[in-house]
Amino acid sequence: MHIHWFPGHMAKAHRMIREQLKLVDVVIELLDARIPVSSANPVLDEIIDRKPRVIVLNKADLADPVATEQWLGIFRARAQEAVAVESVSGGSAKLLIGRTEQAAKDKLAAWAAKGIRARAVRAMILGIPNVGKSSLINRLLGTATARTGDKPGVTRGQQWLKIGKNLELLDTPGVLWPKFEDQEAAFKLAITGAISDEVFDMEKVVNRLTELLRERYPERVSGRYNLTLPLPENPAAILELIGSRRGCLKSGGAIDYEKARRIVLNEFRDGKLGRFTLDEPGSLPEEKPSGE
Ligand SMILES: Nc1nc2c(ncn2[C@@H]2O[C@H](COP(=O)(O)OP(=O)(O)OP(=O)(O)O)[C@@H](O)[C@H]2O)c(=O)[nH]1
Ligand SMILES: [Mg+2]
Asked: For all residues of the chain together, what is the average pLDDT?
């Protein structure tokens, strides 16, 4: 799948992140709980390097809770602090404040040893577009200060926000990386909404989503759209059935596939089809050897 999506502002955002990183004590990296591997930006990994990091699996309310627990275990087994958060609905975001301060503890201890009065811990929130960075900040603030939206590319500049007395957070624009080595990851990023709908091939993306659903969760598809099992092999045939169930017809009576695709994609993204984890637990990429 060919996606033209690396706009100039993302290259600029990577540069800004590199510069701002010098000012922060901790990085809070948001991953999408539905795709903890596919949503990890390898460029950020390089930029963040050894800076203390807290991983947040956001949108946990949309992910399979069993898989999320497994993923948290996988990160923690690598001595990587990780928490699952629901930035819009849940209370779990508050947990993050303590974890972030904890991640800065060496710095705080060093200040104390030098007799410097500790300032607030500074953390930078990083992650792919639309993963919920601004929503998480708002959740922690308890107000809708940072602008959010259900499409990628909402935050453009960087913004510092103070959470209580001891923590300052920097909101940043979402960033993707220039080249997807892994086409399957590109599909998953498109499915979950990290890439603007205008720049990818909707037919290919929703066909792939339909395939994934047929392979792993056929009963949810049959339940939601009142289809009999087994579902047809061909994703277009499944979409045809969904289209006819939902009355997606063009004038003359032909199935309006575009409309059927929209329904499936939106209902998946809204959680109406259920909670899904598309990256199966266990597939973290190779760890960098220490000292590199
Ligand atoms: N269901 C659910 N939706 C969420 C969660 N967090 C954020 N969202 C939604 O995801 C969309 C994107 O949220 P934002 O906070 O704007 O995302 P962002 O990472 O700041 O995006 P950019 O600024 O574009 O990089 C919004 O529609 C939010 O309501 C979550 O935990 N669960
Ligand atoms: Mg934002």
From this structure: 91
